Amino acid sequence: MQLLQGEPKFMKSTQDDTGASALQSEALDVDVVLDCHAEQIFYGDFLAVRNSKIPIRKNTITGLIGPSGCGKSTVLKSINRMNDLIRGFRFEGKVHFHGMNIYDRKVDPVSVRRNIGMVFQQPNPFSMSIYENVAFGLRLNHFKGDMDAKVEKALRRAALWDEVKNKLKNNGLSLSGGQQQRLCIARAIATEPQVLLMDEPCSALDPIATRQIEELMIELKKRFSVAIVTHNMHQAARVADHTAFFSVDITKGGRTGYLVEMQPTIKLFENPQENLTKEYLRGDFS
How many domains does the chain have? Predict the structure, then answer.
């Protein structure tokens, strides 16, 4: 299968036209490229997240903040069905992307992940050359075009080309932590996803590398729609266009994350609507 162009096709090969038409969702705001309605997310019998609606808008950065255990990463990984790989995971709700619910049983999760890329908390380059790290997803998708040009383009977009152009044969693990994370970003965007998810991409990096990644995110949103989980409120304030604040419900003896409010970032930080958000931003709890 070649890399997908234009509107992605998520149907499994057995899908027919009747099933495809049944997947059409209601019209979304024109700026919303992906709309996540997480009614309930379970791991086995444990209710991890409830009542959370996260729209991701075109060419913007959406930040997810909140205390540990509030479900930020769970929601993020649900957006491209990465949590499907966890035993006992169950998603109740919908994630609309290009008029389809990606959790419909007729949708191929592998195709979903090709169009909704992900970068993880710890840099995880493969033990292979810098070049092959970036080319990995392209080869997996049987890309038949100019591989050298694709690799260079991805490395340039990840602001890494000038640092590695003369050592593309070196092992990716030989790079510094910040360079490794940018290499992972290059690998994620090489296949031209439309949405890029980033789960605390700076938590393992020093302040200089963190600033480089933040500047890169702002540049990447010109081409991609980005969603980022961060524990750093200042980071969300610096890079996010919209920010969602999550908290934890412990009233029934468990720990269930839920969305408290979501606003344009400036509004959320300067004039939050919910008392819980005000308390979190003041540092009353973390």
Answer: 1
